[in-house]
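To whoever is on call:

I kicked off a structure prediction for a single chain this morning and the downstream step that reads the tokens threw a length-mismatch warning. I double-checked the sequence; it's 272 residues and nothing unusual in it as far as I can see. Pasting both halves so you can look.
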Amino acid sequence: MAGIVVVFDFDKTIIDVDSDNWVVDGLGATEEFERLLPTMPWNTLMDTMMGELHARGKTAGDVAAVLRAAPLDPCVVDAIKACYGLGCDLRILSDANRFFIETILDHHGLGGYFSEINTNPGAVDGDGRLRIAPYHDFHAAPHGCGLGICPPNMCKGQVLDRIRASAGADKRVIYLGDGRGDYCPSLRLGRGDFMMPRKGFPVWDLICEDPSLLQAEVHPWTDGQEMEETLLRLVGRVLLEARNLPALDCKLESLPAVAVQDGMPMPLRIKN
């Protein structure tokens, strides 16, 4: 293995839309969604909306058909496959749900590239209704994050801590995300890690408020092409830095050209 863990958010990172909104809009339930939105947490709302769609006669197959049409940039697909081919451990950390994520990944032939999907449970029950549950059962107890911006059903920072512990302390992490929920894990990355926020999205705005709070290098991206170029460049950089280590078993000759070019993107800021 390359000694690199790449952690992807899903909505507006791997796919270019919010999968929840994509399904609700695609199945004609936007008005009901907007009416209920102020009354309950998002995760609870999505479970409620799946019940509403089921009552309207929409099946899990109908939901899956809408999901398979969600836009996924070919450059993102190429980036995932290239990182996997270079020995990176790829994981997903998302506030979507397992049914949505697995449906889209399997449709694009990407399910086998990820060693782990950390997300809200989502499965079809005995009545054929899609049920969505919280990753963290906030009805039983709060997750306890003190940052104040994590949703009640998931603190991504806590999940990232578990990912790091399971992967090993010697692994370097590259984290990609766009939303407010991706800010907490960005604060938990270390000096040898990299944060890749989507520029112009909420996590980028939060980082820009005080970049010195992050220890990791920050490398923004705007679209699939820039994500692919930046991610492969960072993976190539880590592999080149480690090429004299006995544990390195990844062939540098197999690196894509973009991953070994001399010009590395300048980090936004590195905490001293």
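Update from on-call: the warning came from a stale cache, not from the record. Cleared it. Sanity check on the structure: Residues 91 and 116 are 5 Å apart (CA to CA).
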